[in-house]
Fold this protein.
Amino acid sequence: MAKYSNVKPILIAVDCIIFGYDGEHLKLLLVKRAIEPEKDKWSLMGGFVGDDENLDGAAKRILLELTGLHDVYLEQLHAYGNPDRDPIERTVSVAYFALIDINKYSKQINDQYHAEWFKLKEIPKLIFDHDKMVKAAMDKIRYQAALHPILFELLPKKFTIPQLQALYEQVYDSPIDNRNFIRKITASGLLIKQTEKDKSNSRRGAFYFKLDKQKHKAQFQSFLNLTAKSK
Amino acid sequence: MAKYSNVKPILIAVDCIIFGYDGEHLKLLLVKRAIEPEKDKWSLMGGFVGDDENLDGAAKRILLELTGLHDVYLEQLHAYGNPDRDPIERTVSVAYFALIDINKYSKQINDQYHAEWFKLKEIPKLIFDHDKMVKAAMDKIRYQAALHPILFELLPKKFTIPQLQALYEQVYDSPIDNRNFIRKITASGLLIKQTEKDKSNSRRGAFYFKLDKQKHKAQFQSFLNLTAKSK
DNA sequence: AATATAATCGTTATTACAACGTTAATTAAA
DNA sequence: TTTAATTAACGTTGTAATAACGATTATATT
């Protein structure tokens, strides 16, 4: 069958905004760009969409390349296609954001890409329109996290309530009343208390919790409101 | 400067999911596909992204071509890129949804494309993955309309409260308590009552209202909740 | 005058929740 | 052993939102 005539093809790339949380700080994984132009500048991890790949597949592959991780929370954010966004060649980029458990991340791999985790407030200037992508991803995460329990994707299997609260506080850049937070979280029924404690941050130690994955899945679509509006 | 080597270009299209509301029914504007394959099948209005166009620009152009309308509410929905989604040639489609005032729509233009408005519940089978796009658009509109006053984009300058309510009822496919609805809507302060009435649907007639565009803009980002949960 | 639709007013019970107070438990350090 | 720091839990109060009703009034056409 004939192909569409007179249509100029365009390159299609995928860029990943990768969030991680180490229990203290919300971070972004960036790589040093290996090719010209903008060589050695900080950039999102990206790549071109392969021949037999769909967009989600490309994003998964790129994420796997950089982090060694399968089964990561990944969501399409937005497609960016200004004609001049890449000075070399017309490229449309479909941006995805990923939420990963930073502990599962295999550090060896990143040497190849000169990858580094940056605290959100210390992100350097990025190439092309990647700054815009990061901002959009943050906005979307705030929007999503206000209604759905997505932030658990950033946590390790076992985590403490203080860690969880600190995560919410960083996403919304505002303090949360601890007493109301505990109430809301326990009322959601999403957490299963463990017997062990994390004693690295206090004398008393904070109990570990696990996510009840059944309930998490079941409640994901129901409009929760896990945020608080404290000063 | 050298181009990226070994990267296969892909065609980039934009497809528009165009919603309209005639005061009675929420509708979708579809066109009869003019070219093979799937010639004469119903389809979303789409087109390829031009050389000097960004994605939003392409969507605007395509919308203008079909409807004759500028300044339409338009939002990027999702990018679709399965390798086999278009049997002719690998094409990534960026879907946009549009909310238009159906009265402003110029009927002459659509003859060229054999366009037709379909009630939401009477949409025919569409080509390629366009069904999926329509479903995603409906989901997104429900999501958005629950928090932001976007449905006003579908209404003419002057509209009645019964029309507005019927619109919400169709979007959520469930009846709304009229007394609570009026209270909520008037409390929002978004409506300005006119002196005229629409007498086409009742003896008494229903007052026309206009949208307070200042307040609409101001309140758009604040998380409203304009929906009701009546049976 | 009858009638159908539009619009207003009112009530009640429930839920969500922010803001703040208080206390018990735990354990490292003094 | 006592002290201090921290986590975790329970309680209170006031307010706002709102769903689910009931009842009534208004209006203009037939």
